[in-house]
Design goal:
This is Putative conserved protein containing a ferredoxin-like domain. There is one protein chain. By secondary structure, the chain is of the alpha/beta class. It folds into three domains: 48-297, NagB/RpiA/CoA transferase-like (Rossmann fold), CATH 3.40.50; 301-395, Alpha-helical ferredoxin (Fumarate Reductase Iron-sulfur Protein, Chain B, domain 2), CATH 1.10.1060; 400-471, no CATH class. The chain has helices spanning 13-21, 24-46, 51-67, 69-82, 93-106, 118-122, 125-131, 141-149, 165-175, 185-202, 228-234, 255-266, 299-303, 319-323, 325-330, 341-352, 356-360, 370-374, 381-394, 399-412, 415-428, 445-451, 463-472; strands at 86-90, 111-114, 135-138, 205-208, 212-214, 220-224, 238-244, 248-249, 274-278, 289-295, 433-434, 437-438, 455-456. The protein has a six-stranded parallel β-sheet with strand order 1-10-7-4-2-3, with helices on both faces. Strands 8-5-6-9 form a four-stranded mixed β-sheet.
Length: 473
C-alpha cells in the first residue's frame, strides 16, 4: 500500500453506493442525524459576528503552514525531543504500522486503548495490531459500536451515524452479553462506560491521533467530547500518537483560531468538552514515554499539486459531510475511506493515488457548492473536485462514459454531424421516449447510466427546423 486510504479491493463508488441506496433504514438514520447537526452548527456560527474573519484566519494559518511545512516539521521534531518525546518518521502506512506495532510489543503489551483517530483508520492500524497479536480497544462510544459490529466508520465525526438506538441495543446485547439492556441512551452509555473502565485501568499503552501539533512548543492537541481521550492520554504509561504531517501549525497561539472554528463546525458546540494538550513527558504527570509518529502516506504528493493542495487545510470537522446531498443518500461506507463525503472525494484520491475506487470518488458529488459555503478553512471543494475529475479523465479512467463524451464532443464540433445525430436520435428514442423524457434505457451500459439521471428526449422539431419551415410557409 503506497497511500493512506486503501482501496485495492474496493468497488468504485457507483457500485458501492447501490447497496446503501437500497437500505431505507440507513438513509433515514443518516438524514436525521446530519439534519440535527446542521441546525446546531448554523445556530452557533450565527452567534459570531466575525465568523468570516475567523474562516479567513484559519485558511491563512494553514496555507502558511503548508508553504513552510519542511521547516516547521523539523522545528516540531526539535520541540518534541527537547520536551522528552521521541519522533518517528513514516513514509507510508506500512512503515507507520510497523513502528507502532514494534513500540507496543517492546512494552510487552497485548492490548492497547485508542482515542478516535481518522489517521489510524486510514492506515488500518487495528488490522496491523491484531495481526501482531495485540488487541486494540476503541474507547470513543461510536468507534466502539463500529468495532463491535465489525464495520468501518461511516462518518468523520460520528462513525456509527448509520445506526439507530435499537440497532445499538441489539449489538450490545449480543456482543457485551447484556440481554436485559434497553435502548435508552443513558443506559447504552453506561453499558459502554462499564465495558471500557477496566480497559482504561489495565492498559499500559494508549494510541491517539492528533488534531493539531504546534511546531514552536511541540504541543500536541486532541479534542473530543466524551473524556475517553483524556483518560487515554493520562493513565497509560506509554502514549503513541500517529499524526499526518499536515496537522502541523506554526505557533501555539494559532490554536485560538482553530479551537473556535472546529467545535462550531463539527458538533455545533461553542467549545469542545475536552481539549487535551501535552508537550513531551513530565515526571509524575501523565505517561512516562511519548512517541510521535509523523505520517506522509501521499501528503507530500498532494502538497506538490497547487490545485489540490488546499485539501490539506482540512481540520476534519465534517461540516461538508453534513450538508452533502450525495452523502445523505449513501452514508459513508460507499466511499471506502475514513474520509467520506466531499472532503473524502478530494482527499482520498490524492492520498491513495491510482486505485479505481479512489478515482471514482471525485464524481460522487452534485457540485452544488454547499460544502464550500460551510468549510471553516475555506477549502474550495467544488473546484478541486473538477480538478480531480480532469486527472481521472487524463488517466483514461473515465471508461465508457469518457469514450461517449469524447464521441459527443466530435459530434458537437460539426453542425452537419450534430444534425445527423439529432435525426438518428429521434428514430432510436421512439421505444423509450414518453412525455418529453427518456423513461428507461434498453439493457446494457446505458441502462445503468440512466437509472440515476433524467434525460429529456430529442424534440420532434428543432428551433432551426421550425424557423426554416416558418420561412417556407
Amino acid at each position: 500500500m503506497t497511500g493512506g486510504a486503501r482501496h485495492a479491493r474496493a468497488e468504485p463508488f457507483p457500485r458501492a453506493a447501490s447497496a446503501a441506496l437500497a437500505n431505507v433504514q440507513l438513509r433515514r438514520n443518516v438524514r436525521a442525524a446530519t439534519a440535527s447537526i446542521r441546525v446546531k452548527r448554523a445556530a452557533v456560527v450565527a452567534e459570531l459576528p466575525d465568523w468570516e474573519e475567523l474562516r479567513a484566519a484559519g485558511a491563512a494559518i494553514k496555507d502558511d503552514a503548508l508553504a513552510r511545512l519542511d521547516e516547521l516539521l523539523l522545528e516540531l521534531e526539535g520541540s518534541v525531543r527537547r520536551a522528552g518525546g521521541v519522533v518517528h518518521w513514516a513514509r507510508d502506512a506500512a512503515e507507520a504500522n510497523g513502528i507502532v506495532t514494534a513500540l507496543v510489543l517492546a512494552e510487552g503489551a497485548r492490548e492497547v486503548v485508542k482515542v478516535k483517530s481518522l489517521t489510524t483508520d486510514e492506515i488500518r492500524l487495528n488490522d496491523a495490531l491484531e495481526a501482531a497479536g495485540v488487541r486494540p480497544i476503541e474507547t470513543d462510544f461510536a468507534e466502539l459500536i463500529v468495532q463491535l459490529a465489525g464495520e468501518r466508520p461511516s462518518h468523520l465525526l460520528v462513525p456509527a451515524i448509520h445506526k439507530n438506538r435499537r440497532e445499538i441495543r441489539d449489538l450490545f446485547r449480543e456482543r457485551l452479553g447484556l440481554p436485559a439492556l434497553s435502548d435508552d441512551p443513558a443506559e447504552l452509555a453506561e453499558a459502554a462506560r462499564l465495558h471500557l473502565r477496566e480497559a482504561f485501568l489495565r492498559s499500559r499503552v494508549a494510541i491517539s491521533g492528533a488534531n493539531f501539533a504546534c511546531a514552536d512548543t511541540g504541543t500536541v492537541c486532541v479534542v473530543e467530547s466524551e473524556g475517553n481521550g483524556r483518560m487515554c492520554t493520562t493513565l497509560p504509561e506509554v502514549l503513541i500518537t500517529v499524526m499526518g504531517i499536515e496537522k502541523t501549525i506554526p505557533r501555539f497561539r494559532d490554536l485560538e483560531v482553530f479551537l473556535q472554528l472546529l467545535p462550531r463546525s463539527s458538533t455545533g458546540e461553542r467549545m469542545n468538552p475536552y481539549t487535551s494538550l501535552w508537550s513531551g513527558v513530565r515526571d509524575g504527570d501523565g505517561p512516562r514515554a511519548f512517541h510521535l509518529v509523523l505520517l506522509d502516506a501521499g501528503r507530500t504528493r498532494a502538497l506538490a499539486d497547487p490545485a489540490g493542495r488546499p485539501a490539506l487545510r482540512c481540520i476534519r470537522c465534517s461540516a461538508c459531510v453534513n450538508v452533502c446531498p450525495v452523502y445523505r443518500q449513501t452514508g459513508g461506507h460507499a466511499y471506502h475511506s475514513p474520509y467520506a463525503g466531499p472532503i473524502g472525494a478530494i482527499l482520498a484520491p490524492q492520498l491513495d493515488g491510482e486505485s479505481e475506487a479512489a478515482g471514482s470518488l471525485p464524481f460522487a458529488s452534485s457540485l452544488c457548492g454547499a460544502c464550500y459555503d460551510v468549510c471553516p478553512v475555506k477549502i474550495d471543494i467544488p473546484s478541486i473536485l473538477v480538478h480531480e475529475r480532469a486527472r481521472v479523465v487524463a488517466r483514461g479512467r473515465a471508461g465508457l462514459e469518457g469514450l461517449s463524451m469524447r464521441r459527443l464532443g466530435r459530434i458537437f464540433a460539426s453542425r452537419a454531424s450534430y444534425e445527423r445525430a439529432q435525426r438518428l436520435a429521434r428514430t432510436l428514442q421512439r421505444p423509450v421516449a414518453r412525455g418529453g423524457w427518456i423513461g428507461r434505457f434498453p439493457p446494457g451500459p446505458l441502462a445503468a447510466w440512466g437509472r440515476a439521471r433524467d434525460l429529456p428526449s430529442v424534440p420532434a422539431q428543432t428551433f432551426r427546423e421550425w424557423w426554416e419551415s416558418r420561412a417556407r410557409s
